[in-house]
Amino acid sequence: MSAATPAARRFTPARMLLYAILLFFAVLYLLPLYVMLTTSFKTLAEIQQGNMLALPREWTAAPWREAWGSACIGLECSGVKGYFFNSIQIVVPAVLISGLLGAFNGYVLTKWRFRGHKIVFGLILFSCFIPFQIILLPMARVLGILHLANSTSGLVLVHIVYGIGFTTLFFRNFYASFPDELVRAAQLDGAGFFRIFFRILLPASVPIIVVTVIWQFTNVWNDFLFGVSFASGDSAPITVALNNLVNSSTGVKAYNVNMAAAMVAAVPTLIVYILAGKYFLRGLMSGSVKG
Amino acid sequence: MSFLHIDDVHKHFGETHVLKGIDIEIDKGDFLVLVGPSGCGKSTLLNMIAGLDTISEGELRLDGRRINELHPSRRDIAMVFQSYALYPSMSVAGNIGFGLEMRKVPKAERRAAIQRVAELLQIENLLSRKPGQLSGGQRQRVAMGRALVRDPQLFLFDEPLSNLDAKLRVDMRTEIKQLHQRLGTTIVYVTHDQIEAMTLATRIAVMRGGELQQLGTPQAVYDDPNNLFVAGFMGSPSMNLVPARIADRDGKLVALVEAGETTLALPIVRDREALEGWCNRQVMLGLRPEAITDPTSANRDGGEIFEADLEVELVEPTGADLYVVTRLGGISVNARMRPGSPPQPGEDTRFAFDVSRMVAFDPESEARIRTAVDADAPVQAASA
Ligand SMILES: Nc1ncnc2c1ncn2[C@@H]1O[C@H](COP(=O)(O)OP(=O)(O)O)[C@@H](O)[C@H]1O
Ligand SMILES: [Mg+2]
Q: What fold does the segment set B240-361 form as a domain?
């Protein structure tokens, strides 16, 4: 194709209209983020008199400091930082363990087929379609029996159980197109079940690992229902803390602090998208070039 | 005692009976080629030898030892796969050395072994590359290197050349043959390509529908086929198969073949005793294209030549040879003649039949009609 063609096409009226529409929606989509960010850097006085869309006249980091370290949540006034680390403590093991289990499931379901493997996969898949609300009561009972009620470990367990269906689905579909002959070659080379998984399959799974991490991380980090049901009080995740912060402010609503706290809650998922998204694209590209 | 003994081996996949009792024995240093149309169970048999598929019935013995229950990694067997199956995230050196690493061979020794194999296959400059950065032929070499480095008792190849283009396929074929001659290894090689089978094998096993049709040297399978299937499958252009009637002409056994208005009476030379019982019955005659020639190219000291004038239907020059097609028994028959002055289609020309190479088949059962039913018997009249 000649270089002139795409360049010429870029400036047709239809193209211009398309870009205008896309730009409009992008702005619309980013507007709340913009308002949150600017509000979080304004003083309360400025918010009360001022224009919501204006930039801060006087930039201040005080709302961020307060949200992080001294805002009152319920009766305690030490900000969201404790809950932020709660969320980290929940999300890291939940993502790692559910991802690893899903990878193992996918490996076994495609490369070590057993009688009834289709039924097992069907059941695991079915778990993806069970609504959150249905499992609340049985899960509370199970956590009670396991003495894990109101703890971060309990919440980790809930997220692992709920996540396995999705992670298994991702890895099974990825490994289904992974050649069986590689596994057979490795068997002849003397590698066993775990060696084949860790040396042959896992290093070739970067794209699907990234998809799984993004999916699990955002789901677990953003979860509110499980958090509020199974881990109230000190072990609550940041989403629950944010809700309590907004609801427990007495007197005047400190919008700037609330916005700063909301930004703190949103930053980790943004970081995961920015970091992993790059690897995700790279994984897709290398996959398309090989063979 | 044979080196590899496949003893009445069966394979069932659920309800389907894929291998129906395969018996093959080969000696150390043999190059056995399993050949047959796609889906006949060649890969299944190879996988069973490797230990990647279970054996439903029968026994597998390697060097006198039963290996049915032995884990693939303990059979001392290496395999080259059709897709090469190179580990995508490892370098070429990593791929070749993986089997040694799993067997806990020390690093220095491993490196030396990789180097030795890389030199043998001329891939020293590729050792640090990833499989994704290699061409088809290079991947093929790496896959062979991975098998060679372990120095196993037995090599298995599953259609290793089928993913290469025609030119490279011929080159690699020659290379595999040279490798076998140089290293004296025992090889079981699967292909659906009968030319590959003929050129590489010391022993050919022709398979169809999960059954062994014939086991023998390439020449035996070619000249002395067990049945119509083997006769038609091996050789290109394929053997002419012409309907005929066996008759007794003044005490001489002949095969009567309809040729236009006339009838040819081809004298029976091979399998005469067996064919006596077929007097006045229909058979299927088999004649290789090179056994029907012009009179001057006929091989007169090989055996008996029968000559006849027949109408030429079609002429196909290939450069080296000239294929002349005529009609016998209602079938187009290929004859290989000397190139030079080709006869014209529609004209008559003289054909010389080397009847000592003619074989006959039962048209019902498709089995060969022969006197000695020993597939391994030396070929009688026919010699190159
Ligand atoms: N895992 C399996 N389950 C069921 N049928 C199979 C399986 N593997 C192979 N088959 C069947 O066995 C037959 C022989 O297959 P294969 O050995 O691959 O043939 P070839 O290598 O000669 O082309 C085919 O009909 C195939 O469909
Ligand atoms: Mg096959």
A: OB fold (Dihydrolipoamide Acetyltransferase, E2P) (2.40.50)
